Amino acid sequence: MRLLILFLVPVISFFSYSNENNDYYHEIQNFFDNQSLCIGPLEWPVIIMAGQDDWINTQMVPLLDAKLAIFKIENNKKIWSLSDKGKKEFIINKGFCYGPLIIKKIENVDVKSNGLIIVTFKYTINNIPDWAVNKSILFANSELNNLISGINSVTYKASFRLNSRKVIIMHSEPEQLDLNY
């Protein structure tokens, strides 16, 4: 009997730890599932008066370079429209999406003395479209650039607390730990 107990304690602890990791995994994944990883304008065509366009050029020129948009000048207006490729890639009310972000691995669960639970993890992004790795797109969109260059290498953390019913509640949104500059 004593031998059985010595065997079961580590096994039960292992499964308990795995289930906790699974709970954290699902909470973090649910957070990212509700975030759109998208860039670009939400309404097309984009029309602006010539001469008042410096700010928009920084976002539109990369879309031209990635063949997602086309451009013309008409009646002193700059007009950007979706290209055929852009029409295929564009998602209404979202833009050009390059996700989803998938939690690859929970690396560590650290319970602090104040009850805060810090969970570190790595991620991946599956099926990244070719336009998302276009150099102009990456240069103009630092968040996209950081996410793509950090796949499988950058560590993120999220913090949790247990509520009065011992249910895991996300305390702070996931944030990048490693700087990737």
Description:
- The protein is of the alpha+beta class and 181 residues long.
- The chain has helices spanning 2-33, 54-65, 84-89, 135-140, 142-149; strands at 38-39, 46-49, 69-74, 77-82, 90-91, 95-97, 101-111, 117-125, 156-162, 168-176.
- The strands form 3 sheets. It has a 4-stranded antiparallel sheet with strand order 7-8-9-10, with helices on one face.
- Strand 9 and strand 10 (168-176) form a beta hairpin.
Features:
single chain; 181 residues; alpha+beta; four-stranded antiparallel sheet; three-stranded antiparallel sheet; 5 helices; 35% helix; disordered N terminus
Main sheet strand line-up: 7-8-9-10
Cα gyration radius (Å)? 23 Å
Helix and strand element order: HEEHEEHEEEEHHEE
Mean pLDDT: 87
Uncertain spans: 1-19
**Binned strand content:** 25-35%
Alpha-beta classification: alpha+beta
| Biggest sheet architecture | 4 strands, antiparallel
Helix content: 25-40%
Termini distance? 57 Å
Number of continuous helical runs: 5
Overall 3D form: elongated
Number of strands: 10
Short description:
The chain is an alpha+beta fold and 181 residues long.
Summarize the topology:
Layout: H1 2-33, E1 38-39, E2 46-49, H2 54-65, E3 69-74, E4 77-82, H3 84-89, E5 90-91, E6 95-97, E7 101-111, E8 117-125, H4 135-140, H5 142-149, E9 156-162, E10 168-176
